[in-house]
Model the fold of this input.
Amino acid sequence: MDPMTFSIIRHRLFRIVDEAVITLKHVSGSAITNEGHDLMVSLYRADGTLLMGGVGFLHHLTSAAEACKAIIRRFAGDIHEGDVFLLNDPYTAALHTSDIYLVAPIHFDGRLVAWAACFVHVTDIGAVNPGGFAPQAPDIFSEGFSSPGIKLMDRGTMRRDVLDTILNMVRSPEMVTLDLRSMIACCNVARDRMQALIAKYGPAKVDDACARLVEQSEALLRARLRELPDGSWQSRQYLDVMGRTARVVLTMTKTADRLVFDFTGSDPQSPHSINCTKWAALGGLFAPLFPLLCYDITWNEGVIRPIEMIAPEGSIVNCTRPAPVSVATVGAIQSVNNAACTTIGKMLAASDKYREEATAVWHANHFAIFKFGRNQRGGYSIGILTETFAGAGGARSFADGVEIGGEVPNPISRMANVEQVEGTFPIRYLFRRRARDSGGPGMFRGGTGGEMAIVPHKAPDGGIDYVISGKGARHPMSEGLAGGWPGAPNSYIWVHAPEDGGDAPVSGAEGIDSLPGRRERVSWGVFPLRGRDALYVRWNGGGGYGDPLARDPELVRADVVAGLVGTASARRIYGVEITDGAVDAAATQALRTTIRQSRLAREAAE
Amino acid sequence: MSSTGNLAGRISPGVGVGSGGRAVCTACGHDLGPAAGPWKDHAGVREVPLAQAGGEAYDTGDDAVVLRQFHCPGCAVLLDTETAMRGDPALVDRPAAR
Done:
């Protein structure tokens, strides 16, 4: 095949995915899809293997491949043009029940030639708790509707009996209808554009290009791996729920052109819904691998071939049915994301050639807070606080992390406008801003996370309730790199208004200190937000890079002036003295010398 | 203290593999033991509760959650950090056996 034709077909495949994503967003009406970009669209070959991974949450790329293969096995002989299949069983392929896959075959001249697959986090799935994340679920049976594969559209016609059955089991059927319709539209566009591509170049030539694309990706990744140092690197993540701490332990070993991710040593599966299945763990490690090692390589089956995963059965990263998994995407899967990001970052940092591609861990701790209740118009609303997608960048070997800079596993994540949320829910924001001292200290500082507080506002029922799956609030999860510190951990505080009959707080100029009342840490379960109470949330910063004592004192001063680092931290962690808004060079040098001497003195004493 | 000289490889930006398969501080050349073994066994370490190390932003109300700082005993540069539950083993990074 001539390289021009190959390149054109490759770019057409990119554009098909892009257009399908745009379609998905245009049709969807949910904040989690449109504002948070909790979505994914990809193309798969006829056998279900990944052909062209799209953007969105990247841990879905490999899991949706498994979904395609599961549909092929289950419906062999009964797959027709215009069919659309639904799959959301985590023990078959999905990550958790609320992330529904729609999988659509693409035919040309009556022959199956490819698949399109997409997902959104549907507004509700009928789990014990609204919104899909179910911290109160003891098992998969409490986590809502779950299918290992069902035909939703038959030869282009909606199966109303199937659709109505699903809608009969969810809290917000009109929104879930929209979720499903948006995915069908997305699959339709992907199918139409793929058929147009094949019509132009012919099925044999397109198939040849696709096969070459997979071979190209494999060859490029193997070549890159050969350039990186051989060795093994470890990482560990902690997830705490209701006083129980679970560990995800990873040893990544790189030998020649192969990478092995070994989760031996991780804790047994949890009674809480933070577990993940093996397909989810596999997706979890690929989410950082795609952008960190394959930033210039097409994300497809070729990238998967040099990678091996070892995940002990019955562990938190390969749980067995009927263990609950509804919090997996912000639980064990995200910890796999983080652990893999750390070990890949360590490997890259050990390479003189690739050090600038290394990063400390970005936003490592999602906080799934789903608000629900009667809204200011008398209707019923369910929705996530999309600030969980705002994230924070990890520091690199040459630069600070991006403030509120998103996350590695989803390159297009973002959060909704305050006004969007206030227009949908009877709440008011007191403040939302960058959080001081949240970025992991280092020669290059981790990006800051954020902080916010909300109160009820014009709520017909006096307020709303929320489901929080805030595992990990005891542990910083955005690990630093090469001596950098981790980003500060998440914090969730229920501020009980004082019983003095005063007005609800109306501003938050001083942050949480502006909010009168008793503070109670919350992290797991269902809680009220009523009366004059407030909910304060602080989310984690990114990990730092390098020794904080090596940071340019002027950068520390600038951070203090901007309110990103406190003066106490500047002094204690960075060893920088600031007097009258300027760096005191002599005092800083003396302080840094003292801190270094204290490190060595401690060594001598021990 | 030895010279970093020509490194045979690196385990991290701050820890190289020197002659004879020894781990060394890349800043000052201080010997950190056999590269195949855990170099952290030969580093200085400070382990303190997170809240003490990082202040209010890191205070999660649990003193068993600690920050470990591994530094070079020769020049005091910070080589690595870990968060851990007190008593959990240190993470091990090492080059491939040759």
In short: The mean pLDDT of chain B is 92. The helical segments of chain B are 50-54.
